[in-house]
Prior knowledge:
heterodimer, A: 726 residues, B: alpha+beta, Beta-Lactamase, Immunoglobulin-like, Longin-like_dom_sf (chain B)
Amino acid sequence: MAPRKGENYELSVDLHSEYREKRKDAIKRVIASMTVGKDVSGLFPDVLMNMQTDDLEQKKLVYLYLMNYAKTQPELVILAVNTFVKDSDDPNPLVRALAIRTMGVLRAEKIIDYLCDPLQKCLRDENPYVRKTAALCVAKLYDLRPELVIDNGFLEQLHEMISDSNPMVVANTVAALTDIHIAASSQPSSSPNDPALFPISASVLSKLLIALNECSEWGRVAILNALARYVAQDDKESEHICERVVPQFQHVNGSVVLAAVKVIMIHMRGVRREDLIKQLVRKMAPPLVTLLSSPPEVQWVALRNINLLLQKRPDILSNEMRVFFCKYNDPLYVKVEKLDIMVRLAGDNNVDALLSELKEYASEVDVDFVRKSIKAIGQTAVKIDSAAERCVHVLLELIDTRVSYVVQEAVVVMRDIFRKYPSTYEGIIPTLCANLDELDEPEAKASLIWIIGEYANKIDNADELLGIFVDTFTEESYPVQLQTLTAVVKLFLKKPDSSQGIVQRVLNTATKDCDSPDVRDRAYIYWRLLSTDPGAAKAVVLAQRPPISIPRTTLLGEVSSLASVYHKPEETFVGKGRVGADSLQRKTDASDDRFSTQKAFQTVAAGQQAENLLDFDDTPAVEGRPSGLAATEVLSHTPAAASLLAGTSSNPLDDLVSIFGAPTAAPPSASPHDIFNGLAMNNGFSSGATGSLGSPVTQSPLVANIANVSPRSNQQQPQEDLLGLF
Amino acid sequence: MALDGIIILDNTGRPIIQSGFRSSTTAYPLLHIDAVNNALQKADRSADVDPVIYVAPYNSANPSACCHVEVGDMRFLCPISGDVDPLFAFAFLQTFIDILREYLGTVSAATLKDNFDIVYQLFEETLDAGGHPLTTYSNALRDIVIPPSLLNKLLNVTGTNFNSTINSGFGAGAAAGPFSSPLPWRKTGVRYNNNEIYFDVVEELRAIVNKNGLVTFSNVRGRIEANTKLSGTPDCSLNFTNSQVISDCALHPCVRFQRWNRDKILSFVPPDGRFTLMDYTYSPNPLPSQSQVMLAKNNVALPFVIKANIELEDSGGSFDVLLTSRYSTHALENVVAEMHLGQGAGGIRCSVSRGSGGGGFINAGGSRNLETGGASNGASWSFDSRRMVLRWEIPIVSPSSSWSLHGSFSTANRVPRPSHVIRVRFDISSHTYSALKVDQLKVVNAKESYKPYKGVRGRSSGDVEWRW
Lengths: 726, 468
């Protein structure tokens, strides 16, 4: 009991007052204390006394109190059971619903035993509000005591309720069944015959389609999500579903629109009629674009989804790039997504508009945005061959501004352009070299050094320029060191006569005075290559690199578990996933499920900084994933990697280190991509690129080679040489 | 689908009120509050924080994410777990905020605290503990959560127990009880002595103008806001004389979709009170069977032109901006033009004047945080030295008039880096860009016939980015 004085005592007195207004006011004060975190659990019996009342509001407040303390005082809650059971029979449907809802969330074992009978009755209540509340209550009961749900036949009852006359009841029943389905299928022991599973049959489908147009926006989302799981029998049925769902595009609520887009994307694959597909694609664009008039948060989610959709269906917004022009006051996250989409939409017809817009952005105030815009120019150059020259021109203009971060970013971007169009823009190399002194960021330096090394035979004073970096070798950051090392070796291979001295110097410094094992290892490898077989060295260091292209966020469409904004593996969004229409075999492995969700979330987290298209380089992000996955796949042939993939280690890099025997500085994380990063870093001699973390663009042939070497694929010279080295 | 709940934070990042979180651990909401506060602290500008934040799992629980939006000086959080579309969370948050507005008038930390019992009830009624949104139609909600009306307050003060009679009588008021209405958005048994129905056609222009004064992008989004006070179950049908000017419509669920698509007639039984009947895009030159979102781009004439002459020199710059209205009949109201002057800007000297040369010339001295200057005809300027934004306000730009802002600024850096953008926002009353015109509104009521009072008004606003 509460002490005889103090606030709680006063409250307790008021709770026993003979005036109902005073009692009600006291209950409000109790709730207020509860809100600010004061302990009012001592008043439990006093509050409970006020539970039996005609005043609905007062009853709700008492229930609120009960729900709050049911967890900590389960033995007291049992005192309320009688009232609950009585209330579930009240003439007022609101009271009946309230009682059943509250009992469902109390989560007290003792209450649960008394729940089943009232629930049975409420599921058949004449009032739809009570029925729909009861339906949701079944899902909660399943969460606590699945056997009670099955024994009492609640599942069968829910299945019957899909045919309810009231669309709200149907929608909530679908939501409840879906919850139970998810809970049941995440059980490791679940079998395909588990009664709790909720397969969407053809008869359920027709009921859902009828209810769809009648219920609230939230109900529609629940129904649409269920429709996304349905496996259409033939193309006629797919067409039927699409035609019935399309009107949802005109709903005011954005989440209904997006859920409808998802259903259409999934079922459109079953549609054979070309005209219908065309029509669907055309109808999809306006509602998505309309979402861009919403608040920035909604815009962002819409943009992320548009980004995904564009990779599946590049044609949906082909003429609408201007909609995505960034406004000065857009938040950064919106601008970044817009840039990404603009590059995706870029084509011969709109590239001029895009470039002038990007140039505009590059003069803005926000440094991050400026950098991303410059990256976007590089991406455009890589994407559209015919526009590359115009892009280079814009970049040169930007370099002319002499704003430090603009110049540095432009240099980085130039590297990618040189990579994509070798020997095309050599004329601008002097301009780039003139800015050597202004570069202070490792990536920019490394990029310029790469360019110098690559064109060492065309640059007269290449040895001089590289000499600057060799002189300060130990003071530079590791990526710059690695790049300097490679560039000097390239220089030596191209102009052996004049650069004997410098290559000696750099190898000496790198092996003796450098504290990074990566740098040392690479230097040793070069040294041995050069001393044993210069021909092999040439083949390795000056090897042809694979061509680069714009990385895709969703690699290979459905391969990886990509979470965009959708916060789910991409395949659940556009098909082929565990809940997608194509999932013919059901995944029953709970851990697998959880893993994919977790990865999805991580991807989002990482993607928030890095996932955009604009990074060709150096960001541990989604775009690297395909190669990451590819690498993983190959790696799994080796025993160490296999154990790693089995997920025994929390930090995959540890295991990688054991494979390659070198420490690493990559951040720990559990995504397969990092395995790739680890590889790229640990192999220690990326020949061409900047020596940064592996991404498709900078991926050197050697990285690929290593991957190939592991499964003993018998390919030609450079790899074998490498094997020898190992 | 699992929206785990709602948390409302005050401007210091402390929770004001939060929903029950009965299916999760006590630590769960705290983790989310921490995650959001950390993200806000790390960001330079709170507006740039990603709206969906990854929340690391605690104790091997499943990972989750936190969707958040800023409302006034508060922040609304919606933690989500599992495969949830964040848009679902944002749509729900928006709906919830709208409901709060309807119940409390203004949504602020103070009103939330004063009405915590109402807010708790709304949490319970709108969001199920399993994460499913429940009742959000305000017509239905008002049946089960009584709004804090003046009447209620008076009764509470006088201490009568009249109040509870109303409460318990509520269910009985509608014969078959709440939620028995065949139309979930409209309650039954509505009675008015004066039947009225009003429509506001509200349009917003968004545009980007490039350096050469050409419109690179423009778009007009409109909506029809209705306020109905009609007895019984009225069946309305509304048609327009020029429905071809609108496209990409999004309709309130009460509108009969087929009818609109076939005949371009909005046929509906409205909810009681305020609601948004439809959203649309204005498309001046519609082509049949084509998405009109983009085709509108070059066709909406901007209501003003700007001539900006801005010279940047070492450690500063001078500007001369002339804004001229292009409209001959409507005045632009509440015109606000903003320009970001870049880091380290200061020493603003400005004058605003009307027309060519007329008006006063005032140099304002700088108070520390907000330098301001007033001028003739109510136009004024100010400088926000925290955001580095020069702001120019003109209450009314009458038809065809022109206004100028003339001045200079200095910067701490040698090279000034202002944004090359002037952002102009304005309102126009009794005007729509689309000139959408209501032809006829019919209200049919089966049980009783009455002639409601009808009204239609137009209202426009704009947000234009003018680059120089």
